[in-house]
Amino acid sequence: MAQGYQADKARKEAVNALGRELARRSKSRCEFCGAAGRPLEVLEVLPLPDRPDPTRAVLLCEPCAEGGRGGRLEPYERWRFLEETVWSDVPAVQVMAVRVAKRLQRANVVWVQDLLSGLYLDPEIEAWAGQSG
Fold first, then answer.
1. pLDDT at 21
2. Directed axis angle between helix 19-26 and helix 2-17, to 10°?
3. In the chain, what are the domain boundaries?
4. pTM of the shown model
5. HSE on the CB side for 129, CA within 13 Å?
6. CB neighbourhood size of 19 (10 A)
């Protein structure tokens, strides 16, 4: 049990260490909504790689991180920024945005239906977005 705890602790530290690189990439803004001046959190995009990797992580503000982890999405209109985010040139951001958009689609959010019906994804991104871990 102690080994699992140590391994989890080491991974969390390694993930947090990605913060600087992700902050440079995002110009210290949330990579979903673009918010600045808020605390930002590193969130790995599933499935997890063996080692934390900045190309498989995103930097998000608290409300966006909650949604990215599978938490609360209401109010739905808050997520309208996904209309731009799903087109991100950062694959991890695009994958996470598509996953959140698909959750909104399952909640029958009308504007997301149009967004996803007009979205073209690179086959590699589409495959990654379809994985959950």
1. 93
2. 30
3. 2-129
4. 0.90
5. 22
6. 16
Angle between helices 91-106 and 110-117 (to 10 degrees): 130
Q: What is the pLDDT of residue 24?
A: 95
User: Residue 113's pLDDT band (boundaries 50, 70, 90)?
Assistant: very high
SS3 labels along 60-125: EEHHHHHHHCCCCCCCHHHHHHHHHHCCCCCHHHHHHHHHHHHHHHHCCCHHHHHHHHCCCCCHHH
- Taking residues 30-54, what's their average pLDDT? 94
Q: What angle do CA 74, 63, 31 make, to 5 degrees?
A: 120
Instruction: Give the mean model confidence (pLDDT) for residues 96-123.
Output: 95
Counting Cβ atoms within 10 Å, is residue 128 exposed (0-12), middle (13-18) or buried (19+)? Answer: buried
Q: What token pair was written down for 49?
A: 């790689």
Structural tokens at position 66: 């909650």
**Which DSSP state fits 2?**
H
User: Measuring CA to CA, how many Å separate 53 from each of 61, 82, 128, 131?
Assistant: 19, 23, 15, 17
